[in-house]
Amino acid sequence: MTSVPNLALFETVHSVKLATLLNKEWGKCERQSPLSVLVQVNTSDEATKGGVSKDQVPELVNYIRNDCPLLRFSGLMAMGAVGDIDGFVTMQTLRDALLNDELPAEKFVLSMGTSGDYE
After folding, report:
1. CATH classification of 9-117 is 3.40.50.2000, yes or no?
2. What are the residues whose beta carbons fall under 8 Å from the beta carbon of 119, sequence distance 6 or more?
3. What is the pLDDT tens value at each position of the chain, 119 positions in all?
4. What's the whole-model pTM score?
5. Of 49, 94, 109, 119, which is the most buried if we count CB atoms within 10 A?
6. What does each C-alpha distance from 64 to 18, 25, 48, 97, 116 come to in angstroms?
7. Distance CA 37, CA 10 (A)
8. Do residues 43 and 54 lie in contact, with contact meaning Cβ atoms separated by under 8 Å?
9. Rounded to an integer, what distance in angstroms lies between the CA atom of residue 110 and that of residue 108?
10. How is the chain split into domains, by residue range?
């Protein structure tokens, strides 16, 4: 995966283990800039969905920011249950708590839902 020449964003970082591995592998590629990553959040607590719980998000984001110099935390992504409006509110709340000078609101990526949620 890290050998993809135009890879610009990895959307589904869901654990410290994956972040560590991705950081290590990205280092082998000798790329000039860090790989942007999104932390995957399981907003609906469904066993069939991937991602960390909302309570684990700050810990994983801090790990990426502080211990993975070849990764750049760029935002959050989630695939909540269809019609789960509360999941969208949760993601906005998490985003607001993670904003800082390095990642202001206008640069924060927030990827949520499916095309069925668009309306």
Report:
1. no
2. none
3. 667 778 889 999 999 999 999 999 999 988 889 999 999 999 988 788 889 999 999 999 999 999 999 999 999 999 877 778 898 899 999 999 999 999 999 999 999 876 665 55
4. 0.90
5. 94
6. 10, 14, 25, 16, 31
7. 5
8. yes
9. 6
10. 9-117
